ABC transporter ATP-binding protein (Dulcicalothrix desertica PCC 7102), 583 residues
Amino acid sequence: MATSRRLAKLGSYLRPHWRDAALGVGALFTVNGLGVYIPLLIRSAVDRLSSEFTINQVLGYIVPVVCLTSAMWLIRMASRIWLFGVGRQVEFDLKQNIFEHLLRLEPSYFATNTAGDLISRATSDVDNIRRLLGFAVLSLANTFFAYTLTLPIMLSINVDLTLASLTVYPLMFLLVHLYSEKLRNQQARVQEKISDISGLIQEDVSGMALIKIYAQEDNERRAFAEKNQRLLGANLELARTRNTIFPLIGGLASVSSLIIIWLGATKIADGSLSVGNFVTLLIYVERLVFPTALLGFTITAYQRGEVSIDRIEAILSTQPKIADELNAIHLAPENVKGKITARNFSFSYPQRNTLVLDNINFEIEPGETISIVGAIGSGKTTLANSLPRLLDIAPGQLFLDGIDITKIAIADLRGAIAYVPQDSFLFSTTIRNNIRYADPLAEIQEVEAASKSAQIHPEIMNFPATYETIVGERGITLSGGQRQRTALARAMLVDAPVLILDDALSSVDNQTATAILRNISGGTTRKTVIFITHQLSAAAAADRIFVMDKGQIVQIGTHMDLVQKPGLYRTLWSQHQVEELLH
Ligand SMILES: Nc1ncnc2c1ncn2[C@@H]1O[C@H](COP(=O)(O)OP(=O)(O)OP(=O)(O)O)[C@@H](O)[C@H]1O
């Protein structure tokens, strides 16, 4: 991103908080104005007191200097509160924007961007921008005012001495210019390495059981040490560059004072400079040393911030691929009948040329229960993910109640479809909150009814705190089957007209799976149920069965029809019967 665009971005982050920023900068202006005035008082004191010295005169100078210095201290404090506050506000806004933006992005985005990298951008990079907008703005404004207010007065006192003291500055700016590109690149490398390490920690913590099962602790330790070493290398490289340039800047600024002392002394000796003016110039140059030396830190903060702006904007500028059309159709779930149609539906994943779904056609009537069976990788999950538009599908291929699903408002489409994916993810909260996730105000009776439909209620009643039992992270305190049925209860509570179960009962025995399917597809208000499964005895209970092979629906029919015809279903059924016998 070009520097001008980065500055425009910074401006846009600051805009909502311009009042505080302006107050902070205004306070710095006042402080620097007072800072310029105090040496003038001292000059007058030095010149007057050298001719007549009384205690009253001394006090007449000391009291205003003390009062002004105290006022400066208070105003400087206020400027810090305002400007650092702006940094914190921007940090809050950015975190909020990033999180809200991530919620709008489609699942495939998270397949290509690791959680560790996203976390590092939302925390460490946001922190860099906070520092840039708090500390760097403060120190830059301070340096700017220090120079613009001090230099004219210095020039009015003595042009030669002032210009001589400034001779080191071109050298200083050349130094900064030469090193800035290098510093920015090294900073970017550090941020990348931080992301790498966050990614590894995040992945290893999630996959800890796997690491232990395969006894891969040593390999993981080595992989971590390698990444940590790279981060250390990047940090040391950056520190070397910084530690070369910043003391040089500070040192060059101090050379200005030496120039004033050296040339000033000769000017006092030849009578062309009063002692008062000499002292004043010396104080002014000293006053400039600190803001100038701070420039180094300001540059670091700026460069860190620059890299971080790019990294954060990479998230914020990613347009969601799956979004509502301008005139999206709104559908209330209670008005949805649940008819699902596919017409010549084909799909391929980005970066893959082959069709994963190849010219699929079907009609599912409202209230019908359909089982989808087929070989591993035949496209069942892809079909299930397409219906609630978790995948970016082309228009005119899938329809809900005859309406193209790409024309329906996404929230309404997803509100009409309850979906239990293969991975029955549970949050680290109570079972009750997990079940009523989609309806946090649901009463316990509704939660219990949903659990009864999912055949998990008796087991929950046996947990130590029944529905208030806390589920460990990702539900590790529950068995696989319990997790699956809790996830199913969550979908049952929604009471949507369409229910999709993607291999969601694989850890439940065949009889229970069949009973659950009968339970959810029966009743007075029948839902349209799509039941993807490898459990053929449960699948057989459906009204119709779709058999998938290599991205196509190769057979459609009832269990009785399909077992009588030669084809994939009969083969799968025979295999299933052999497995049942061997069991
Ligand atoms: N995100 C993805 N990116 C690229 N290819 C994918 C992605 N997800 C699935 N595939 C591929 O699409 C094909 C169909 O996968 P899908 O998960 O739909 O099959 P499935 O029938 O549900 O399999 P299973 O019975 O194992 O769940 C497979 O070849 C798979 O490798």
